[in-house]
Amino acid sequence: MVEKYIPASKKEALEVLSKHDCYIVAGGSDLMVMKKNTAGLAPKFDKDILYTSHIDELKGIYEDEAGVHVKAGTTLDEVLNSKLAPALLKKAVSQVASANIRHFATLVGNLANASPAGDTIVVDFLLDAKVKLESVGGERIVDVENFVLGVRKIDRHPDELITELIFPKLDYSGDMWWKVGSRKADSISKVMVAGYWGIRGKIVEKFALSFGSVSIKAVRSHDIEKEIIGLSVSELKARKNEFIEKYGKIVTPIDDQRSNAEYRHKVAMNIVSEFIDKVVGGK
Amino acid sequence: MKINFNMNGKPVEIDVDPSMRFLDVVRDVLHLNGTKEGCGEGSCGACVVLMDGKSVNSCLLPVANAIGHDFVTIEGLKETKEFDILQQAFAEMGGSQCGFCTPGMIIAAYSLLKHNPYPTEAQVREEMSGNLCRCTGYQAIVEAVLKAAKKGAGLW
Lengths: 283, 156
Ligand SMILES: Cc1cc2nc3c(=O)[nH]c(=O)nc-3n(C[C@H](O)[C@H](O)[C@H](O)COP(=O)(O)OP(=O)(O)OC[C@H]3O[C@@H](n4cnc5c(N)ncnc54)[C@H](O)[C@@H]3O)c2cc1C
Ligand code: FES
Ligand code: FES
Hints:
The complex is a heterodimer of chains A (283) and B (156).
Chain A: E1 4-5, H1 10-19, E2 22-25, H2 31-34, E3 48-51, E4 61-64, E5 67-71, H3 76-80, H4 87-93, H5 99-102, H6 107-112, H7 119-126, E6 130-135, E7 138-143, H8 144-147, E8 148-150, E9 153-154, E10 161-167, E11 174-180, E12 191-200, E13 203-212, E14 219-220, H9 222-228, H10 233-238, H11 240-250, H12 261-281
Parallel strand pairs in A: 1-3, 2-3
Antiparallel strand pairs in A: 4-5, 5-10, 6-7, 6-10, 8-9, 11-12, 12-13, 13-14
Chain B: E1 2-7, E2 10-15, H1 22-29, E3 48-51, E4 54-57, H2 63-66, E5 70-72, H3 74-77, H4 81-93, H5 102-115, H6 121-127, H7 139-151
Parallel strand pairs in B: 1-5
Antiparallel strand pairs in B: 1-2, 3-4, 3-5
Bound molecules: flavin-adenine dinucleotide and FE2/S2 (inorganic) cluster (2 copies).
One FE2/S2 (inorganic) cluster (FES) binds at residues 37-40, 42-47, 57, 59 of chain B.
């Protein structure tokens, strides 16, 4: 018999998780599809279930020295309407699923689902987001790039609850977000790219790019970014093709029914080219 | 398990498995059959209901998450002036043919107009992209929503 827990406080939830291996259901937009049963019958969960939507402590967005904290129960719609949430994150969120789904699905659920096509994960990677996990034993904070391990694989122990996603303050002068899908909105992504840059004088002071749907998880290369940061705008312009080639090696799409690997690779590289043009053009 | 929430302005208490889909409670337990099941996977919008004033896919909503919230289905919306305006606009513009998607469309339109009373055409298309219609080709629906926005100005 599968037990269902509907705690009203974080403390209660952590106690349940310390004793029982549970599915954690937030909005349910991923899990209810995954566990779908015949109409009229309850979904097929093979383990206990912990519902988090009644935990008030898990709701809301706040800011402190560490950055902007999005608590785990915050819906995509609330992120979209928040004055504190990073603008680039909002751009990505506005393209996730549909308004109906954004009204109850959570940002943290999109991350924890760890789909290679998770739109907001690309921005989490780009903005150096940190994941806060809590258990009865304490808390830990993990860089999002280390937190996502693979397709539907995350660095969470069974007794841990994700409680926050933290976005450190970053200053940059320009940013971009692309989602190339089969329909404008409401499509599971084919290719997503997020990037930002900063120019001071004629020097590229900041440069970051991350990609989604082109590998088993979102990808970002700090090595390539390090090579580019510090170059003059004209050097970056002259070496554009070299960097496109380098990005071409880390972007390794897998074939699936949505779009073949070659097409995705090409789209991603065209976007890198356009991005570098923007950076050197100062637009 | 005993589950409490408000449906169409009235408190409801039912004894069901909290992992059930709210859609099945709406249709099979409360017999509010205006809410439809299309895809059962969150992508067609036939099942949307208002939860605290916002459209949500009841096929994806576990009953556990419904506890304590306020819901309105198309049956409840029918009692409102806003519904009359929406229904008239849909009729005038030809926004409903077979009618299967229409309850969901009206709920989604209501949710949109309550939060954005003066939407642009692009906003209507984007905000209602989670509601599919096999009959009308959408133009008539978008026009109906824009017309309802205008006619109901001040009401939303
Ligand atoms: C029709 C449709 C279209 C979609 N389109 C898109 C799209 O365009 N782009 C996109 O990126 N996604 C899309 N999605 C996916 C989905 O809506 C998101 O992934 C959503 O953000 C998940 O949030 P949720 O709260 O509903 O998650 P849930 O289903 O409740 O949970 C998702 C996962 O996160 C885990 N989790 C949730 N909260 C916690 C916590 N506090 N601690 C630990 N683990 C937790 C759950 O255990 C589960 O593994 C779509 C889904 C549907 C049904
Ligand atoms: S039946 Fe719920 S969205 Fe299609
Ligand atoms: S009127 Fe038939 S599906 Fe919309």
